[in-house]
Write a structure and sequence with these properties.
Elements: H1 8-23, E1 28-36, E2 41-48, H2 50-54, H3 56-67, E3 78-81, H4 90-93, E4 103-109, E5 115-122
Parallel strand pairs: 2-3
Antiparallel strand pairs: 1-2, 1-5, 4-5
Amino acid sequence: MVATVLIDQYIQAGRSLAEMLKQAEFGLQGAFWLYRSESGSWHLVLVTDLVDTLGTLESYKRVQEVLGPDNGLMLLDVKVVGSTNPLATVPQKVQRRGPSTWMLPFSGPITGGGYVDEALVYQLT
């Protein structure tokens, strides 16, 4: 099965949202686009300890506040996970490169026995 292409507009909007969340003290620990082969769609995964402390609903409310109407993404495009979720390990699995590389590909096994078919991981500074 061929993966649906993630268009540049979404890649840029995800990067912009990640940067805004870093400034908004969202506790962002990682951000990446995750391809789900079973649904054939991409989701922007945001790793934050707010999920662990305040819960999923409050985390989504805070994302919506920062997202606003003009970002190019909808809240349905976003998945928030806490630091104990196996997906939280994805950003740690990519090898950091120089400052000119702001997005890195990943596929492979993750903690808990899961597997990521395809992900594009933002290097957060």
